Amino acid sequence: MIIHSSYVHQSLLPFKFISPFNETKGHCNQCSFSIPHKQKLRSLSVNVSPNCPTVNVLNDPSKRLPSYYSKIIQECIDSGSFELGKRVHAQMLAEGIQPETFLRTKIVMLYARSGVLEDLYVARKLFDEMPERNSTAWNTMILGYAKMGEHLEVVDLFFRMQKSGILPDKFTFPSVVKACAALEDFDGVRQVHGLVFKTCLSSNLVVGSSLVDGYARRGSIDDAVAIFENIDEMNVINCNAIVGGYVKVGRWEEAWSFFLKMQELGLLPDHFTFAASVRICSSMRSLGGGKQIHAKLIISDFASDIFVCNSLIDMYAKCGDSKSSLQVFELMTERDRVTWNSMISAQVQSGHFLEALMFFQKMHTFGYKSDRYNLASTLVACTGLAYVEMGKEVHGSMVRNFLDYDVITGSALVDMYSKCGHVDKAHQAFEKLVERNEVSWNALIAGYVEEGEVQEAFKLYREMELAKNVEPDLFTFASLLTLCADQRNKDLGKQIHAHLIRMFGTTNIILETELIRMYSKCGCLNDAQSVFDQMVERNSYSWNSLIEGYEQNNQAERAIELFKCMQIEGIEPDCFSLASALSACINLSDAMKGKRMHGFILRNALENQGGLRYLLVHMYAKNGNMDYASKTYICTSEKDVTIQNIMVSAFVGCDKIDEARELFNKMEERNIVSWNAIIMGFAKNGLKDDIFAFFQRMQEENVEFDSSTLVTLLDFCASLPALAQGEQLHTLAIKKFAVPDSVVLSTAVVDMYAKAGDIDKARKTFDKMNDRNTIAWNAMITGYSKHGHSKEVLILFEQMQIERIYPNDVTFLSVLSACGHTGKVEEGLKIFISMLEDHKIEAKVEHYTCMVDLLGRAGYLEDAKEVIERMPLRAEVSTWGALLGACRIHHNAELGKVAADQLFALDPQNPGHYVALSNIYAVAGKWDMVEEIRNMMRIRGVTKDPGVSWIDIGDETHKFYAGCQSHPKNKEIYVMLRHLTLRMKELGYVPDTKFVLSNAKDLEDEEYFLQHSERLAIALGLISLPEKSTIRVFKNLRICGDCHTAAKFISKIMHRRIIVRDNNRFHHFENGACSCGDYW
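The structure assignment produced for this chain is given below.
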C-alpha cells in the first residue's frame, strides 16, 4: 500500500492542516463550530463556544489525558468533525502522548471513516504501526476499505485478521460478503457463509441480509431465499435483495409475487424497490402492473426520484406506450444523462427513430455529452431510417471519444453499416473492435447475407468458430440459413442442418423454423414437412412458414389444408397465416374459401392488419367478383394509394378500363405503381392514343417512369407493331439507365425490334446485354424464326448451350418452327428427339404441331397425319391447321378435306379454315366445291375477315382495305401500281389466280390485283418515304400469293427493301427474292 508521506507529515503538524473544502461544518455535543478557509484561520476559538470540551483540552494541559483525548476524538467521529479531530491528533503528537490500544483504535477510526482516500491511507499506516490490534481495529479498517470500494483490501484484511487470531463478528461479515460479491468471487461468498454458520450468525439481520444480497447477485436465488427465511427480521433491504435476485435470473413472476408480498407485510418500498418492480413490469411487458406502480409512486415520496423515473421511461417504452414515456420525461424536475439515454432508447424501442435523433441532439444542447449507450441507440435510429450520413456523423463522434473500439457502440456501428448496404465499411468498423461479441459477429455476417455474399459470410462464420470467448449462436445460424434460402442453395442448407444436429442434438424452435423456410424456398417441401413433423414445439411462426412454403410452391390446396390444421391444434391464425391462405385462394380462384376467410377476418377484427384488405380486394377481383371487391374497397376507412392501386389493377384485369380511368383520375395521390397500372390497362385494351397520352402526362407531372413502365410500352409497341415509338422508348431507356442493366427491360427492347420488323437492331441490343437469361435468348431466337432466318436460329441455339443457358420448351418451339419454315426436316427431327431425351422436356401440343408443320411443308403429308394420330395428347385447332396448311401447299384436296372437317368441328366460326380449303379447291379448278364452301359459310354465319394492311409514314398510320379508294393519295397510288405492273410484266410477271373465294370474272380483270391492301400500302411507301429507305408493311391476314410474287418484283424494280409482316411471319423482300425462300 502506498502512503502519501507528504500529506501525513503536514497533517501531523499542529494547526497546519489545509482543508480541501472551502468550508466544512460539523457538530460538537456542546457547540456549533466551523473551520474556515486557511486564509481566514486566526485562532481555534473562532465560532467555538468557550465551554467546548475540545477547546478546553487543547487549551488546558491538565486535561490532556488519553481518556479525554479518546472522548474528544469519538465526539469528532460521531459529529463528522474529522478535520477538527485530526487537529486533536496533531496536538497529541505535539505533546508526545503515547496512546494505548483503545485510543489508537479511535484514531484509526477517525481517519478511516472520513471518506477521504488519503485519510484511509493514513489510517492504514497507523493500523499497521499498532503493536496490538483488537477486533474493533480490524473491523474499522475493513469497513473503511469497503466504503471506498477497495474490495481486494477488504478480503486481504479479512484473512489476515483470522491469521492473527481475531475472530470475525457480525460487524466484519457484511463488508466481506459485499466485497466478494463485488469481485464476483462467489466461492469466497460461500466460504464466508460457512464461517457465518459456524459463528451462529446466519439469523442476524445485517449478516443474513448481506448473504442474501451476495447470493442474489450471483444468481443463486434459491440459496438467497433459504438464508432469507432464517433471518430474525424482514426489512426492505433484504427484501430488495430477493427481488433483485429474482430479476437477475429472469424469474419475473416470482419477483412480482415477492414484491406484492412485501406490500402485504406492510414494508414500505424504497426507491430501489420501486425501480426493481418497474423493471419487472418492463420485462413482463405488463403495462397494467407498471401503471399501478406509477400510481403508487405519485402518492409516495419517490415520484420525482430520478432513478425510479428513468426506470418508468424504459418500462413504458418496452410496453409500447411511448406517449407515457414522454410524459414521465417532461414531468421530471431533475434529469441526468441516464434520463436522456433512457428517453433516446425509449424512442428507438417504439420505432420513433426520427424522434430519437431529435432527443439525441437536444441532449447536447443541455450540456450532456455522448456516451456508449446513447451513441449505440442513435445508431439504431440511423439504421431504422437508413440515415447513413447521420450514422457517419455519429461514427465521427465515436472516433473523437475513442468509442469506435468499444464493443457496444462498435457492434451498433457494424450493424448500421451492414443494414444500410455498406458492408465494406461495416467490416472496417468490425476490424477496429478490441473485443467482439456475438452481436458484432452476427451483424457483419447478416450484412454479407443481405448482399448475397456467400463466400464472405461463410468465411466469417469459420473465423467466428475459431475466435476466443465467442461461439456461433442461434442468430448466426439463422442468418446462414436465410442466405441459403435466398440463394436457393439447398445443398449448403442441408450441410448446415447436419451441423446443427451434431452441435445441438435437437435443434431450437427458431432454427427449426428457419430450416422450414429454407427448404420451402428451395422447393424441398418434403424436407420442410419432415422438419415440421419432428418439432416438439410449434408456434405460429412455424406454421406460417410451412403454409407460406406450400403456397409459394403452387400447392395451394395443401396450404389451405395446413391452415385448417393449425386452428385444430389451437394456434390462432394471425395476419401472416391469413395472408398466405388468402394468396392460396387467389391461386386456386376459389372464391368460396376466400369468403369464409373474409368472414373469419371480420369476426376477429383483423381486416386492417398485414395488408389483408388489399389481398381481399385482389382475391375478389381475380375471381371476377368486382361487386365484392368494390364493397371491400368502400369499407376501407383509409383509402391509401396502395389499395387504390389494387382497385385500378382490378378494374384493368376485368377489362373495365373506363372505371379504372375514373378511379385513377380521382386519386389524390398517385405513385409509379398507379401510372403503371393504368398504362397496363390501356395496353391491354389496345388504346394506342390513350397509352401514349398518359405516358406524356406522366412525364409532365414529374413522375419518373421505371423499367416496368417501359416494358409495358415496349410490349405494346411490339404488339401493334409501332417501330418509331418503340425506338423513342429505347432512346428514353438509354438516357435514364445508360445501358439498361435490367434483363427484363433489355429483353423487351429485343422483342420490340424483332416484332416491329427491325431484326438487325434487335440483334445489336441482344449483343450489348450484360446478362442474358433463357427468356432473352428465346426472344432473339423467336425473332430470327419469325423473320425466316433459320441459319441464325440454329447458330444461336448452339451458342446458347455453349454458354450454359439451358433451353426450355419455348426455345424448342421457336427452333422447330424455324426448321419447319425452311424445310430442315432432318435437323428438326434431331432437335425434337434431343428435347425429349437429352433435355428431359416433355413435349406439349405446340411441339407436336411444329412437327406436323415440319413434315407437312416438306411434303411428308402421311407422316404428318401419323404424328397427329399417334401423339399422346389430343390434337388442337393449331395441329389440324398445320396439316391443312401443308395440304394447301401441296394441293392435296383429299387429306385437306379430312383436316378441314376436324377444324370445322373444333372451331366452326373461324373463316381461315374455310378459306384454306377453298384455296385448295381453287387451285384444283373445282369451282363448284369453292361455291359449296361459300354456301356453307353463309349458312353458318361465317364471314371472311377483311384484309387490312397498314404502313407508318412519319407519326401517322395509314390503313388500307382491299379495293380502298378513299386515301388522299389514291390517284398517285394507282398510277404507281399500274406503272409497276407494266414493269413487272416486262420481267415475266404473271398474276397468280389461285386465291380465295374470288369470282373467275374478277380474276380476269387485271385491275382487281391492284386493289389488294398490302399492294396499296407498298405503293404509298414508294411514293411517300425517302429513296432507299426500308418500306415496312403490316397485314392482319396471311399475305396472298400474288402479292408475295409482286413484292419480289417491286423490290427488284425499285431497288428497295420491303418488309411485310403478316399474321404468321416476316417476309423480307430484297433484289427480287424473299427471306422465306417461297417456303411459307
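Interim note for the steering committee: Residues 628 and 639 are 16 Å apart (CA to CA). The beta strands are 24-27, 32-35, 948-953, 956-961, 1031-1035, 1058-1061, 1066-1070, 1073-1074.
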